[in-house]
Amino acid sequence: MEVDTVAELVAALPPGVVVTGAAEVEKYREDFARDGSAGVPLAVVRAETAGQVQQAVRWAAAHRTPVVPRGAGTGLSGGSSAVDGGITISLDRMRAIEIDPACQVAVVEPGALNVEVKRAAAEHGLWYPPDPSSFEICSIGGNLATNAGGLCCVKYGVTTDYVLGMDVVLADGTLVTLGGKQIKDVAGLSLLKLFVGSEGTLGIITRAILRLIPAQRAGATLVSSFPTMTAASRAVVAIRNRVRSSMLELMDNATINAVEDWRSHGLDRSTGALLIAQSDAHGASCEAEIDVIRRCCEEESATEVFTTTDADEADLFVSARRNAFMALEYRGSVLFEDVGVPVPLLPDLIDGMADISERCGVEIAVVAHAGDGNTHPIVVYDAADPASVTGARTAFDQVMALAIALGGTITGEHGVGRAKKGALPDQLGADVMALTRRVKDALDPDGILNPGAVL
Ligand SMILES: Cc1cc2nc3c(=O)[nH]c(=O)nc-3n(C[C@H](O)[C@H](O)[C@H](O)COP(=O)(O)OP(=O)(O)OC[C@H]3O[C@@H](n4cnc5c(N)ncnc54)[C@H](O)[C@@H]3O)c2cc1C
Fold first, then answer.
1. Is 419 in the pocket of ligand 1 (CB under 6 A)?
2. Is the pTM of this model over 0.85?
3. Cβ contact 143:76 at 8 Å
4. How far is the CA of 74 from the centre of ligand 1 (A)?
5. pLDDT in tens, 333-368
């Protein structure tokens, strides 16, 4: 029966679009969360057009078959993990990018990588700011579906702030166009934003209209060492109160050493915490901002402060920060967290996580988009040791509980996916969960879109 119905899908789409070979399908089963419970899909549809996405969804709707939308598979919460007996619709072949310099927008197919959009915009002196650390390997569709953040969000905001329009294929195969190239638009309910961050549970994004802004000014970078993460996070709070820096990132000692083990960036392995701050303000204002940041660091017992206006020199530190996840994966098995709190409570979150690490007997390395109060505690454990596995799972849950207790969130940018859905009701509460369920049921009554993710 299954084989017959998949044959129908294969026949309906051009040759090569529907992939069923085991080796090829395997590449589309997991994302970077390496979800051990990822299923085996009946087929992967490597769509080339929105029309093909519609055809595949109509087929799935007719057969009540689960559909998992997938971008580049760099997600860190199991959001695009395949489902047994379902199909995965991969958007990786839909990569067209068109820049409209007069309107200052990019019209982009979902499979285009973030870096490709940035490059295309730069050819016109324009900039697409959202910059997840994974910007060279993640897709725009995935960015919209997770409302991705990144390093410059502390000043420039997150993905949703740049989404003006999109085409979405709904659960019955209908394609709707929301928004457009206009900057302001309040006609009707804000359905456009409903789809941003919906993690493939409400529809499949097949085109996006993204706002661009003038290219970022070259600025200055300050790198400061601290004896502890607590001191560094206090400095972050002070900086946030006084200037609007364009980057405020933190790495702890475990991360610094993991990065150095993986690929030497010349970081001091004995440093308790490293803060990387940038200002892209104009001329003298840039100098003034860097001066304020320096003073905030010194007042919180910084042991060393270094500044540079040389872009290559700055990039050494920024790329060390961007490489943190990859480097930590080499230390053992990892669980990726993404908790956030109101910025003034960042030191409490940092201290609380250190306590959890000690109690559970597992290492929790911390990197953070600190200026947003958004941390990535990474639980490193030994998958071959049952005690370590239990400690890691307990620590993972306790870190989310701590963030909620501090009035924060279980995920600031990676999404709930499959990894964090157990904790979602604790954050949202019964009424908001019920409302979420009503929205999901209204848009996807048969529950075929990304079942098992988020809800
Ligand atoms: C080294 C590393 C660093 C990272 N740093 C950051 C960071 O700084 N900030 C950040 O926010 N994230 C970061 N991430 C996480 C990840 O890159 C982002 O979540 C990214 O937005 C996922 O994009 P993707 O194309 O890989 O999506 P996928 O992993 O393929 O999918 C992610 C989710 O989006 C859904 N989806 C994908 N495409 C579509 C579509 N067209 N329509 C509907 N739903 C869709 C999927 O179903 C899934 O739920 C990092 C990941 C890695 C590996």
1. no
2. yes
3. no
4. 5
5. 999 999 999 999 999 999 999 999 999 999 999 999
